[in-house]
Amino acid sequence: MRVLQVKEVTHSYGRRKWLGRSELRPPVLSGVSLTIESGFCLGLLGTSGAGKSTLGKVILGLEKPQKGQVLFQGQDIYHGSTQVRRELRRDMQVVFQDCYSAVNPRMTAGQIIGEPLDNYERLSVQEQKRTVENLLERVGLRPEDRNKFPHQFSGGQLQRINIARAIALKPKLIVLDESVSSLDMVHQMHILSLLGELKSSLGLSYLFITHDIRAAYTVCDGIAVMEQGELIEYCDDKDGIFESIHPAVQRLIASILPEHPADRLPS
Ligand SMILES: Nc1ncnc2c1ncn2[C@@H]1O[C@H](COP(=O)(O)OP(=O)(O)OP(=O)(O)O)[C@@H](O)[C@H]1O
């Protein structure tokens, strides 16, 4: 089943004054189309400023595009009733790069994870406590961690809490915007393996936005590449990326360092 369909999306940020006239700024997204099937993880790669996060915001309903459509489970997210859009928002969650600014430092882990449940579910105090504890265990933390505050966790642990909050409502799609980029290599590998496990067990779909082709290759089924607001490559099978003849994609591939330092020396 098709979870997400982005159709010919074009977007620019605001207007600028030019020779006394007001005109739209140049587009940061130009005619972008892509689809994500149920249970699929699509990696979205590209250099800084390519428009990846903007596309993520358009998909999440946070930036209405000037042209094109975003269909989530077949429904246009910018044209449904308030009720329909509220339900769509429940099924589409996000995990950002900066795990610290994504949480309220005065809330406990239990309150952070419980927030979407407060908004959408009517659970008793006991049910909510049990659900939060299950979610903590699901992401590799302990039930008693629900009483801790954000500053009492490492970056990797806090990102697990953000992931627990994102899966609390059993969404269909999670947009992961550079979600592992601020973590060290060891934590990155742990979070990538957690994401892979959750995808299989919960039947999730991901849009995995990253600069890091290695991370994308580890977690994704397919890979798309953006440059200057356009989608320049789209591979349903991630291995297809290595066949790309596009110079920008070849530069991304060339940026992968060989694993052994000796192999990194110029010949
Ligand atoms: N709120 C905004 N207002 C105006 N311009 C913006 C805004 N957000 C992003 N831009 C511009 O849009 C372009 C695309 O930015 P975007 O953050 O989508 O790229 P990106 O590929 O995610 O980059 P990065 O990997 O560095 O986060 C950039 O030129 C950026 O300066």
From TrEMBL:
Q: Name one Pfam family in it.
A: ABC_tran
Q: Which UniProt keywords apply?
A: ATP-binding, Ion transport, Nickel, Nickel transport, Nucleotide-binding, Transport
Q: Where's the ABC transporter domain?
A: 4-253
- Give the superkingdom in one word: Bacteria
Gene Ontology terms for molecular function = ATP binding
The cross-references to NCBIfam families, in alphabetical order and at most eight, read: nickel_nikE (TIGR02769)
| Name listed for the protein in its UniProt record | Nickel import ATP-binding protein NikE
Question: Which species does the entry assign this protein to?
Answer: Paenibacillus farraposensis
